[in-house]
Design a protein that fits this description.
Layout (H helix, E strand, L loop, with lengths): L3 H20 L76
Length: about 100
């Protein structure tokens, strides 16, 4: 005899499988980033006071010279010396750059 919970489980699985198969999932190769629609909402921030009182006259945050020296650059290729050999702790043939 089939209990109520078993019958509910079977119906939910059947419905779930039919929903997932109807959408037709595509592989990563079929995905096109240009089809993604990006929506950016303009947000007005209300601080509760007039910010112009605290800035110099004719202040423009977008004017001025941008110096390349002001950008903090982190070299991602620096090797880190841990003081021990890490190969003994990794599986054979381990390559972190293979996906």
């Amino acid at each position: 005899m089939i209990t109520r919970n078993t019958l509910k489980t079977i119906l939910m699985l059947t419905f779930g499988l039919s929903v997932f198969t109807s959408y037709g999932f595509n592989s990563a190769e079929d995905f096109d980033i240009n089809t993604v629609e990006f929506i950016e909402e303009e947000q007005e921030w209300e601080l509760g006071f007039d910010t112009a009182q605290f800035l110099p006259e004719n202040f423009d945050p977008y004017s001025g010279i941008i110096s390349v020296k002001a950008i903090n650059f982190i070299d991602a290729c620096e090797e880190v010396e841990l003081g021990f050999e890490t190969g003994g702790y990794l599986p054979l043939g381990f390559d972190p750059y293979i996906q």
